[in-house]
Structures are given as C-alpha cells and as structure tokens.
Design goal:
This protein has 234 residues and is of the alpha/beta class. It has five helices and eleven strands; from the N terminus they run βαββαβαββββαβββα. The chain has one domain: Rossmann fold (3-Layer(aba) Sandwich). It has a nine-stranded mixed beta sheet, sandwiched between helices. It has a two-stranded antiparallel sheet with strand order 5-8.
C-alpha cells in the first residue's frame, strides 16, 4: 500500500479530514510534523488547509521555511506527487513550487460555500483519472484564495494544460476563474476547493473522491517507480 504524508503545520486544521478521506478510499495516510526533515517512505504528499503559523505576514509565507519543506521540494523535484489544498496551495506558491500567488478575495470577503468547478485538464496527479469537462461540487472556505499571475504566465498555464480546475461563477475573483493549477510536469498541484470535504457525503457531495482517487493512483505509480529506481541502483 502506498503511503501519503499529510503535513501538519502549527495552525493546520484540515489534516484529519484529509487522512479520513484517503483512508476511506483504502489509502495509507499518515500525519507528518512540519518540523520533521524526512517524509519517510511516502509516495505522495498533501499540504492540507488551515492557517499555517497563523497566516502571519502572508498565508504560507512562514510555512515555506519549515524543515519538512526541503524534503517536499526534493520529493517534487524527483517527480513525486504533491498536492496543496487551500492553505497548502498558498504554501506551495510561497515556496516557488507552483506559479502565481494567492491574494485577498475580491471584495475582501471570506467565502464559505459549495461551488461548482470544471476539470480543465487531466494532465496532473490530481486529475489524471477525471475527464476534462467534468463538473464537480466542491466546498471552499477561504479569505485569500484569489489566484493571480501576470498575463504571460497565465497564457503559459493555459497553453500547457496547467490550469486543472476552474470555477463556475468565480467566487473570489481569481484571474480566469482559476481554482487549481499544476506545475509543468503535472506532479505538483494546488487548489483552493476542498476535495476531502466532498467525500463520504460530507457537506452533501462525494465529488471530491474522484480527485483523491487520482492522487492515490499517482501515489501507487510513484511507489512502483521508486522500487524500480532502488532495484536499478542496487
């Protein structure tokens, strides 16, 4: 069974939701403290939602310096699946693992509702098992989820299939209604909606399960690749 490391920062509050949802799908999800320096034998990583370090300075600005982030960056550089949800997305942009930035919502209002999102691209570890055009009902819960980037970056993201999820209705003012993006390789993904809260009937939707299944499938592929690399090295 592939292990998924769910990183806990001081102020994280969605880690247990992620663990429960992944275990409900048969995954081996484990909590990893932000002060650790190793991910162990993890085959995927999730940075969950919450308010890491109280969101002082900017959301994710302090969390990017946590010791575990060096291991996350190395894991990502070798193609390992990494997903940041809400605050985790903010951490990934602050750490330079994803393009763009997250800023205050339009109107400076905190949003907490279930929204409809459309899968734009299947070129990521989170959407590989989902057909483009699929509509998903997913909860959002954030005050600084307004994704922004310069026009050249947006054109690159759109052209290379790195925009993986888009809002219908654009609840926070994100450029081009972007709800989730991936890096160029597709192994690092950030999204503001919470797929773990749209599982097992929580908040009236199971639509997050298709995304979490894709992550577990990607983790299984990474575990096989890791074993192959180990065998080749020996």
């Amino acid at each position: 069974m592939s292990a998924v490391a769910v990183v806990v920062f001081p102020g994280s509050n969605c880690e247990h939701d992620v663990v429960r949802a992944l275990r409900g799908l048969g995954g081996d999800a484990r909590l990893v403290w932000h002060g650790d320096e190793s991910l162990g034998d993890a085959s995927a990583v999730v940075l969950p939602g919450g308010f890491a370090h109280g969101d002082y300075l900017r959301p994710g600005a302090i969390a990017r310096f946590s010791p575990i982030m060096a291991a996350v960056a190395e894991f990502a550089a070798h193609g390992g699946p990494v997903v940041g949800i809400c605050n985790g997305f903010q951490v990934l942009t602050e750490a330079g693992l994803l393009p763009g930035a997250l800023r205050r919502n339009t109107g400076l209002r905190f949003v907490c509702e279930t929204v409809t999102c459309t899968v734009v691209s299947s070129r990521s570890v989170l959407t590989s098992g989902v057909a483009p055009g699929t509509r998903l009902a997913l909860p959002i819960n954030h005050g600084e989820g307004n994704f922004t980037c310069d026009p050249a970056t947006l054109a690159e993201l759109e052209g290379s299939g790195q925009v993986v999820l888009r809002y219908e209705g654009n609840p926070n003012g994100s450029v081009a209604a972007v709800a989730g993006v991936a890096n160029a390789q597709g192994n690092v993904v950030g999204l503001m909606p919470h797929p773990e809260r749209a599982s097992a009937g929580l908040l009236g939707s199971d639509d997050g399960l298709v995304l979490l299944r894709s992550l577990l499938d990607s983790a299984a592929d990474e575990a096989l690749s890791s074993r192959a690399r180990g065998a080749a090295a020996s």
